[in-house]
Amino acid sequence: MRRRSLGLLLAAAMVVPTTLAVPAEAHESKRVVGYYTNWSGYGRNFLVSDLVKNGSAARLTQINYAFGFVDAQGNCTSSDPWADYQRPFTAEQSVNGKADEPGQVLNGNLNQLKELKQKYPKLRISISLGGWTGSAHFSDAALTPASRAAHVKSCIDLWLKGNLPGLPAGAAEGIFDGVDLDWEWPASDGNPGNVIRPEDKQNFTALVHEYRKQMGPRYNLTAFLPANPAMIDRGFEVRQLFKDLTFGTTQGYDYHGPWENLTNQQSALRGPAGDPTTPEFSSRVTIDAYLSRGAPRDKLVMGVPFYSHGWTGVTNQNHGLFQPSTGPAPGTFEAGTDDYRYLKAQLANYTVYRDNRAGFAWLFDGTTFWTWDDPVEMARKAQYISQRDLGGAMIWSLDGDTANGELISALHRNLR
């Protein structure tokens, strides 16, 4: 990685937010994809109905509902039956303003998503399979033609045909318009205990093709793809994959985080001057990696974060950037990570700094450092997506936004 002058970085950093040009409306061809998690309704108390209240639902083209799991036999399962299809909702909590009735067939988030589709008929919803804690058995499911066929049949039966355990056949049919594969990661380490094999790379291509074969052209088929070019080359046959995918979403965040000692950016558009780490991780590096390996621009959807990473015990130099720390900053639900809406409530305690050249921002109070993706940075990311003529933006995750949806609003109105 090229090492650049620290003075250039400081010259580019600004305390006062930069006003970016805002077009009147988003271009309809750009996708706006958001992950809604089945744990959002617990401590975060962010329900499906909040997607209506904060304006997200009207701005989204697709929701990825996360996560369904893959069990040791390669079958699809619900990771949380209570949240997915058992929890009753009150009239105040529900999308349509009516309480779930005792004895009704389908409850939970799936029924709320069903009501959401009735309200927004153009909205597409996919079941997202895997995730960090649910990818342990993907390698086994993808291993042979027989295991792939059985796995895909299981997932279609459970999620697309809606045959949920303990409910009448087809109770959830028609809710999902496709499948999102979030295998983290083929042929690379992910969560400890995950099964990985060198042949995952070819087997993932074959698994995606099996999904397309069994699902046909009617359904969306998408995949979440890593940022690291080395992981791309170990686990993904990019050109072949995109022949079967409706689109792919790139990891546009977690470039750095509190698993490292030094503070850094987590979602910069370009490598910042003065970064002491190698290799460079940035959205430009990731997008260029996929384009150079054969991904079509219009099928490449760039991820953006609605959350921050944080460090504490940070040396008070360079406004806290690229400085050693004593560990992760305290977070609302997890050390080292916090949602935008919670950090915004503490904003008066921090100064905002921006690197307009590299395209990222951060917060610092003299000892605690947070990465910072606010409406200014969302507008910047949307303009980058538009300038590069990519297929759109993907959000992890929708529960991080404010009650008035300021992040998705800035993102949506700047996509063209």
UniProtKB/TrEMBL annotation:
The keyword Signal applies. Keywords: Carbohydrate metabolism, Chitin degradation, Glycosidase, Hydrolase, Polysaccharide degradation, Signal. It is an enzyme of class 3 (hydrolase). GO terms for biological process: carbohydrate metabolic process; chitin catabolic process. Residues 30-416 form the GH18 domain. Its EC number is 3.2.1.14. Gene3D superfamilies: 3.10.50.10, Glycosidases. CDD domains: GH18_chitinase. Pfam families: Glyco_hydro_18. GO terms for molecular function: chitin binding; endochitinase activity. It catalyses: Random endo-hydrolysis of N-acetyl-beta-D-glucosaminide (1->4)-beta-linkages in chitin and chitodextrins. InterPro entries: Chitinase_II/V-like_cat, Chitinase_insertion_sf, GH, Glyco_hydro18_cat, Glyco_hydro_18_chit_AS, Glycosyl_Hydrlase_18. Residues 1-21 form the signal peptide. PANTHER family: CHITINASE (PTHR11177), CHITINASE 12-RELATED (PTHR11177:SF317). Belongs to the glycosyl hydrolase 18 family. This is chitinase. It comes from Kribbella jejuensis.
